[in-house]
Amino acid sequence: MTEGKAVMGEERLSARAVAEAVTDPELPMLTLADLGVLREVTEDGDTVSVAITPTYSGCPAMDTMRDDLVHALHRAGYDEVEVRTVLSPAWSSDWISAAGRRKLAAAGITPAQVERALDPSGYLGAADAFITAALTAHESAASPAARP
Q1: Is residue 146 part of a domain?
Q2: What are the beta bridge partners of residue 43?
Q3: How many Å is the Cα radius of gyration of the chain?
């Protein structure tokens, strides 16, 4: 569904459009869709079901992502919102959209490509590669050699 029903005389956005606009709490230049953690959005009237996947097992941002999705969908006029976590298949940095990669590059972060053969579970491999890339970019920018 690309259009939602009218709310107080105005057309509301589809649940998918609302969910796709929610930003990541740790990388606010990205939406959850850019990051590839937004897996599925279905709506049935005023009821919405959203599936998200953590970038790694135990990701501390999951509660914030869930809360942000629920609040955004409630503000958009959806009364019942369920956000569930989907662990399989595991998230991979390959799921970052082209737009997300451009936004990360503009922020000085380049996610590494994950060798799935080295880590078939994907959890730690994907997270380590992503976090290592982010930290490397941050450390490079903060190092004395990088300062003018």
Answers
A1: no
A2: 48
A3: 17
- The verdict on residue 13 lying in a domain is yes
Query: Pairing between strand 38-44 and 3-7?
Result: unpaired
DSSP 8-state assignment for residue 31:
B
Tens digits of residue pLDDT in 77-95: 999 999 999 999 999 999 9
How far is 19 from 12, CA to CA, in rounded Å?
13
pLDDT above 50: residue 132: no
Q: Is 103 a member of any domain? A: yes
Tell me what pLDDT residue 10 has: 64
10 SS3 class: strand
Could you give the number of structural domains in the chain? Answer: 1
- pTM > 0.90: yes or no: no
Find the CATH number of the domain harbouring 7. 3.30.300.130
Q: Which domain holds residue 107?
A: 1-141
